[in-house]
Amino acid sequence: MLFGEYHFKGVLEDDAILPPFKGSTFRGAFGSLTDLLGLAAMASPPPRLLVLLNHQLTPGQRQALAPELGVKEVILLPPALQALWGRIPADLPELSAFLQPLGEWPAAQARAGDFVLIQGDFGATYLMVQFAREQGLVPVYATTRRLAREEVRPDGTVKTTRCFVHQRFREYGV
User: Which domain holds residue 17?
Assistant: First the structure.
């Protein structure tokens, strides 16, 4: 069911006997009616995902967007802003001025209810999560399962290989 505001007017003359539907009884009982009346088309468009990462989305992350978040459209940072996000100077005493162009980007691209995938420098991430919430956006991050393999080399050193497998998206602070 698409998110939105629905208004119905009707009179029930008999007690309603509804079957046990999986999920919302309202959606199960009236979902096809809303489709028939074209009410779904009047609902809000599905949320989009704005990506604020140091790397590209992985195939696992892309596959999880629709089932987990209901997202069908992904909006990536323009190259200049991608370079800015990927190279936040460690020697800056505060980040607000440096991050201003990155804060302007979602404000110009997003609509309330869109998701913003934010991961990177801890301080910058914290500030961008706050900014996203102030704009009515939903800040999320990706969780992973880490697989590690250690190999003892002939010279006695240990080589560790780590593989990160996407698990789910999670809203910040929830």
Answer: 1-44
pTM: predicted TM-score of the whole model, two decimal places: 0.69
Q: Distance (Å, rounded) from C-alpha 127 to C-alpha 24?
A: 36
Paired residues of 118 in beta bridges:
52
Task: Tell me the chain's radius of gyration from C-alpha atoms.
Answer: 22
Question: Do 83 and 115 belong together in one domain?
Answer: yes
Q: What is the pLDDT of residues 16-46, one digit of tens each?
A: 554 444 444 444 555 555 556 665 556 678 9
172 within 8 A of 116, measured Cβ to Cβ: no
DSSP string for 14-59: S-------SS-HHHHHHHHHHHHHTHHHHSPPPP-EEEE-SSPPPH
Do 136 and 91 share a domain, yes or no? yes
Q: Cα(167)–Cα(60) distance, rounded to whole angstroms? A: 8
The CA angle 42-43-49, to the nearest 5 degrees, is 130
Counting the structural domains of the chain, the total is: 2
